[in-house]
Design a protein that fits this description.
The protein is an all-alpha fold. The protein folds into 2 domains: 87 residues, no CATH class; 68 residues, Winged helix-like DNA-binding domain superfamily/Winged helix DNA-binding domain (Arc Repressor Mutant, subunit A). It is 74% helix and 0% strand. The longest helix is centred in the middle third of the chain and has 29 residues.
Length: 183
């Protein structure tokens, strides 16, 4: 943003422009977005960001505020069209089907994973659920191969203990009972 006045002068000029017009443009956009303050604030913010990046040109226009308002309005219309098109696409696919209920084992597994420290959880999920090799997990997480192996060992041990506790609570047994052979 270096110009004849220097970057500081342009920044001060833009700050003054923003201070004098941002709330007015936001109020106008609230009306143009059907009363949606959050949407209006988002598009006005983006419009002012674009104005700042083009400030040497925008400042020379007859009405920089009109430029910002036009950009914000076009952004709002564009977002509205995207939302409308997404809704049409969802309707075309028919009603959403309800996911099947989670069984107790699945809930226990998620609870056991959630109880792990993040590094162990990430290593276990990437290795066992995403089928990545230990080397691939190390590359993706930025850890050494030995650190990933250590996280896997610790995580599996913690999960085994957690899942054993769950089984004890659910069934009253610490381990499944099997019929003895020969009886």
């Amino acid at each position: 943003m270096e110009g004849r006045e220097g970057g500081a002068g342009l920044a001060a000029e833009f700050d003054a422009f923003y201070t004098s017009s941002a709330s007015r443009v936001t109020r106008q956009l609230v009306m143009l977005t059907g009363g949606n303050l959050a949407e209006a604030e988002d598009v006005v913010q983006e419009a002012f960001e674009r104005a700042w990046s083009r400030w040497p040109v925008v400042r020379g226009l007859g009405s920089p505020e009109a430029w910002v308002r036009t950009v914000a309005r076009r952004l709002a219309v564009s977002r509205w069209r995207r939302a409308r098109n997404a809704a049409v696409a969802w309707r075309r696919h028919g009603p959403l089907t309800e996911p099947p209920p989670l069984d107790a084992d699945h809930v226990a597994l998620i609870a056991a994973l959630t109880a792990l420290p993040e590094t162990q959880r990430v290593s276990i999920v990437l290795h066992h659920l995403a089928d990545l090799s230990v080397t691939q997990v190390a590359l993706e997480t930025g850890q050494s191969v030995s650190a990933v192996k250590q996280q896997l060992v610790r995580g599996r041990a913690a999960m085994a203990a957690s899942l054993a506790d769950t089984r004890t609570i659910d069934t009253g047994d610490s381990a499944p009972s099997y019929p003895k052979e020969g009886r």
